[in-house]
């Protein structure tokens, strides 16, 4: 044993050397100063190595909680999906449709309908080219742009048949397809169903075949047996006039009417009055108002029943009605005469059919991926389009109608893509107010007529 004086000498030696007495594991031979921060970090590394999975899951769940708080408590503001409306004002100069689409755009902007958390807005655009080939090129360019945009949910086309046939394949071939609603194209066959079933497009307007039936039925009810068909050769309406002219010729026999001849007119092909005298007792005209006025001047004094197709109507511009004789001239059109100044098909496409498709998707829900995206606020327009396509196919299989104002019963009934209960009414210029039309077909209870 050391004496007390020896222990004191050793303590003094330690103080003189500036060393602190070691503590802890004496075999390490480290003093507090030597271990210092290095020792503390080593301890942390050792602890982390021993508890690495606890550390991993703690960090994981902390990040998950922080992300969830950011997504659910303070969800991000979504950029809107757009329903693109593509207008064409070259054929009809359809001021009523343009005005109606603008009103609907403002309405949707204020009411802000949504799909999940994403607002849905209308984007109204117009074609500007005036020549047929340039119009087709412009329509194709815009169609390709819509199909590739990352915010296009649906397209509504207020376009004639020729331009609709240009852009419709672009939307149907997109991945996923872009749902399409045509307000004014009346072709008998805009597109054929795909091999898997119904393609996601709808044609609320009655077809040219429906119009031919109405024109022929009215002529038959008036006791007419021999009709002359006159088709407008203006390039703007050539597809429409040819198909409707062929429908009139092909269906005439079903109504006990013989088509004595089909005469092309317009675009540098004016017939003489003698060419129009072929023993007919009625004339069925297909085309625009310009050529119709020339035809009526040639027919003046011949005492013939004349039925004009819907191409002569320029909604929102009724002054030219005053040029139509009120005693022998009638007009075929796809709405009641009381709605002559409105564009019901614009309203049907936006506020009825498109709105109902959105409601159907909300009610029935989307697929698992769509629901997961919606849950975590990672919505994607392509996922939404995929589910809208599914909804349209389900509706075609299980529920073939949509609400609409253009139907006399308040519904548009579809067979696959085409309207099945569309009616072309027959109007007559009012004898006292030439800017007004009256329903005279007697096929339905007419609405109260308006100026």
List keywords for this structure.
seven-stranded mixed sheet, 3 domains, six-stranded mixed sheet, alpha/beta, disordered N terminus, Rossmann fold, 12 helices, 451 residues
Report on this model:
- The protein has 451 residues and is of the alpha/beta class.
- The chain folds into 3 domains: 31-74, no CATH class; 81-206 and 345-407, Response regulator (Rossmann fold); 208-333 and 424-439, 3-Layer(aba) Sandwich (Rossmann fold), CATH 3.40.50.2300.
- It is 42% helix and 17% strand.
- The protein contains 12 helices and 16 strands.
- The chain has helices at 4-17, 32-50, 52-73, 95-111, 132-148, 161-173, 208-221, 238-251, 289-299, 344-364, 368-375, 381-398, and strands at 81-87, 114-115, 118-126, 152-158, 180-182, 201-202, 226-232, 258-265, 282-286, 305-308, 329-333, 401-403, 411-415, 418-419, 425-429, 437-439.
- It has a 7-stranded mixed β-sheet with strand order 8-7-9-10-11-15-16.
- β9 (282-286), α9 (289-299) and β10 form a beta-alpha-beta unit.
- α4 packs parallel to α10, α5 (132-148) packs parallel to α6 and α7 crosses α8.
- The longest helix has 22 residues, at 52-73.
- It is elongated and about 115 Å long.
- Residues 1-7 and 11-27 have low confidence and may be disordered.
